[in-house]
Each structure stands twice: as structure tokens, then as C-alpha cells.
């Protein structure tokens, strides 16, 4: 099946690389034009390098290669005024808005140096940033639109993001993602009369920079002083019921595509995991 999103426009945050870039490309493959934003700066509490302007330009190139239109802009989801400026201008240029994918997120971990501001940074991006994204998009969304929010399977599990060793930033990440579950249900209820669907996708470990960094390697392999990716991958594999270390960004994008399409026209208020069985394997959290 092709052309599932012909004539539609999707607004994607955190689109410079990782899951966000994958979503932009996958939706463009099915006919959507794209509005792509990313911070393209570093947040000090985040232990791994965030995306760059060059990364965002690569997303732009990949979408244009598919003969789709794209408006790519540097913007911070924490700044609602800037987001509104970007979305208003982009909708004027592209003519409409039908899909919102609130994907931007960080996992701050100041390993060994806990700072309460890490909690603030995480919640500002992962929770407030999502609400800002939805707020600026809503005035442009016609009936029968779709909003999809990125959650986290790990945040559903006790002893993962709320592990004290992970610090305030991880606690903020987990609290934000859990809070989004209720937010999604409330927004789905209030937007139902307009047939606007709101759903949350909860990935397990995904093959992106958020997973592949020294801080998370150390959390998965605390028995080693300086664990490498090769050291961590067997531990990643124990996290899922299916014997894989992580899923790929496109595995999440395929669900985003379905939820954005008219095939999901009556699916709303859902919490949908792409987790290879991790929550079933560890319903009480990993020991």
C-alpha cells in the first residue's frame, strides 16, 4: 500500500535524527509533506550529544529526495512562542496541518553529580514540550486529524527510570512519560467530538543516541568500569522477551504511520507499546 498520507502535512518535533528523522522519512514515503523542528543545540544536563543543524539539514535532504515538501526549522519545544511562529509560517507555506508527532525528548543523566535542574530539564522537554507542541498545533488541525505522542515502555516499569542511580534527570524523564499517559487520555476525550485522535506510542530500547551512550552502558553493565556498546548489548537483550537488544527507529515509525493514517480513524486514547514483550517479561520491573 502506498500513498496512505497523500495530501496531508505532518508536524514532527525532534526530527533532526533518530526516531524523529525516521518518522519524517516514513511519512514522506507515504505522501505526507513535513514540518520538521529540532533544538540543534546541546542541553548541559544531557550526557550524550544532541542533534545538530547539519543533522536537521540531512532530514530535509532525505524528505526532498522523496519529492515531498518540507519546512525544517531550528526551534525549542520549551519555547511556545517560537513554536507558534514556526508552525504558523509552515502552515501558511504548506497549506494545512493534519498530523502531529510530538517526539522530541531527552534523558539527562549527570552520572555521579545529581542536580535537581536535571529533573527540570527533563520535564521541560519531555512533558511541557509535548504540551506546547499540541497547543500550537491545535488551532490548525481540522476534524479527523491525528496526534501521536512518544512515551516510553521503561517509564511503565518500576526500578528503571526511577532507579536512584540514574539521578534526577532520569526520574524527570520517567515522571514526564508517565504523566503523558493521562494527558493523552484527557486530550483524546476532549477532541473526540472533532474526530481528532490522540494516542501514545511507548517504545522499548531503540537504536538511537538516547540508548547508545556511556551513561546507559554503565547502568546496564555496572559490573564494568568503562563498558562499551559490545559489553552492553547482551544486557540490552535481557530487557525484552524477544531476544533482541533493541528495535529500530522504523519499527516505531511504522506504528506512527498507521496511527496517522485514516486506517486508525477510530483509534484514540490508546497506550500502545512497541516493546518486544518487555513489559510482559518484567511486569514488576527488572531485578
TrEMBL record:
Keyword Hydrolase part of the UniProt annotation: no
Family annotation (InterPro entries): NAD(P)-bd_dom_sf, SDR_fam, SDR_subfam_1
Database matches in Pfam families: adh_short_C2
Give the CDD domains listed for this entry: SDR_c
Coiled coil residues, start to end: none
Provide this UniProt record's keywords sorted from A to Z.
Answer: NAD, Oxidoreductase
Q: Which family does it belong to?
A: Belongs to the short-chain dehydrogenases/reductases (SDR) family.
Q: What is this protein called?
A: Mycofactocin-coupled SDR family oxidoreductase
Species annotation: Nocardia jiangxiensis
Amino acid at each position: 500500500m502506498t500513498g496512505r498520507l497523500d495530501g496531508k502535512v505532518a508536524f514532527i518535533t525532534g526530527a533532526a535524527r533518530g526516531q524523529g528523522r525516521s518518522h519524517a522519512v516514513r511519512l514522506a514515503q507515504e505522501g505526507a509533506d513535513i514540518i520538521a523542528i529540532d533544538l540543534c543545540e546541546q542541553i548541559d544536563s544531557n550526557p550524550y550529544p544532541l542533534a545538530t543543524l547539519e543533522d536537521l539539514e540531512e532530514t530535509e535532504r532525505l524528505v526532498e529526495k522523496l519529492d515531498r515538501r518540507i519546512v525544517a526549522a531550528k526551534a525549542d519545544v520549551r519555547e511556545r512562542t517560537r513554536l507558534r511562529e514556526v508552525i504558523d509560517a509552515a502552515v501558511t507555506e504548506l497549506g494545512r496541518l493534519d498530523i502531529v508527532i510530538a517526539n522530541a525528548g531527552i534523558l539527562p543523566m549527570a552520572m555521579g553529580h545529581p542536580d535537581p535542574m536535571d529533573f527540570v530539564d527533563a520535564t521541560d522537554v519531555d512533558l511541557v514540550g509535548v504540551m506546547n507542541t499540541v497547543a500550537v498545533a491545535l488551532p490548525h488541525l481540522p476534524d479527523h486529524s491525528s496526534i501521536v505522542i512518544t512515551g516510553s515502555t521503561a517509564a511503565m516499569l518500576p526500578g528503571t527510570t526511577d532507579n536512584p542511580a540514574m539521578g534526577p534527570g532520569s526520574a524527570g524523564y520517567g515522571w514526564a512519560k508517565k504523566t503523558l499517559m493521562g494527558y493523552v487520555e484527557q486530550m483524546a476525550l476532549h477532541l473526540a467530538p472533532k474526530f481528532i485522535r490522540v494516542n501514545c506510542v511507548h517504545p522499548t530500547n531503540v537504536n538511537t543516541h538516547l540508548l547508545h551512550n556511556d551513561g546507559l552502558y554503565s547502568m546496564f553493565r555496572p559490573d564494568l568500569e568503562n563498558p562499551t556498546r559490545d559489553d552492553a548489548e547482551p544486557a540490552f537483550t535481557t530487557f525484552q522477551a524477544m531476544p533482541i537488544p533493541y528495535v529500530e527507529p522504523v519499527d516505531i515509525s511504522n506504528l506512527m504511520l498507521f496511527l496517522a493514517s485514516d486506517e486508525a480513524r477510530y483509534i484514540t486514547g490508546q497506550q500502545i507499546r512497541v516493546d518486544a514483550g518487555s513489559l510482559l517479561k518484567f511486569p514488576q520491573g527488572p531485578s
